[in-house]
Amino acid sequence: MSHKPYIVGFGGTTRPRSTSEKLVAAVLAEAQAQGARTELFGGEALAALPHYAPEHPNRTDGQSAFLEAIRKADGIVIGTPAYHGGVSALVKNAIDLIADLQSDSRVFLDGRPVGIVVAAGGWQGAGATLSAMRDIVHALRGWPTPIGVAAVSSAVFDADGQLRDDALARSITSQAHQLTSFVRAQIVNETA
Ligand SMILES: Cc1cc2nc3c(=O)[nH]c(=O)nc-3n(C[C@H](O)[C@H](O)[C@H](O)COP(=O)(O)O)c2cc1C
């Protein structure tokens, strides 16, 4: 098959060594290992996006680059920290910008698989935020993958930056597999 799935990830915080950003990068690395092309918009890129203002039609270069990547993506990974029981403002601002794709032939995230990644201080915040993110992805017409990646940050990486937990590593691999196989199944359907 000549078409490589193009998977775009965005998320994280402005914090150095943001766990949510590193987890998104880990899913993208797995997707790459499974033959995908990938691109990441991390915390720094998201922090450069102005507050989304639907009444102002002009977009910055950063906003346009983000929208173009989402427009072309075959699959998406969104990573957020749990902030006060939900999605952070930084990540939600990027999500809100996807409203600009309302008039596209593929509206918002229509038809695309979306992997969700959450880093939290505790399991209650992780679960609540994962669940909220699934509702957001549904509102954007995306298909949340069955496997969500949710983790308590203090337990994710060891001092060498390696994943501590085999179960978490497996969920990262599984989510990447669900993204790439969903895209490949669509390509087979379209060319049949
Ligand atoms: C403003 C703020 C609010 C937070 N609220 C929650 C919360 O409600 N539940 C929770 O489990 N963790 C909460 N945390 C902890 C973060 O989710 C956790 O530190 C996470 O790893 C941050 O993401 P990062 O590692 O990508 O920076 C909060 C942290 C901050 C700074």
Automatic annotation (TrEMBL):
InterPro entries: Flavoprotein-like_sf, FMN_Rdtase-like_dom, NAD(P)H-dep_reductase. One of its GO terms (molecular function) is FMN binding. One of its GO terms (cellular component) is cytosol. Residues 7-155 form the NADPH-dependent FMN reductase-like domain. Gene3D superfamilies: 3.40.50.360. PANTHER family: CHROMATE REDUCTASE, NAD(P)H-DEPENDENT FMN REDUCTASE LOT6. This is NADPH-dependent FMN reductase-like domain-containing protein. It comes from Asticcacaulis benevestitus DSM 16100 = ATCC BAA-896.
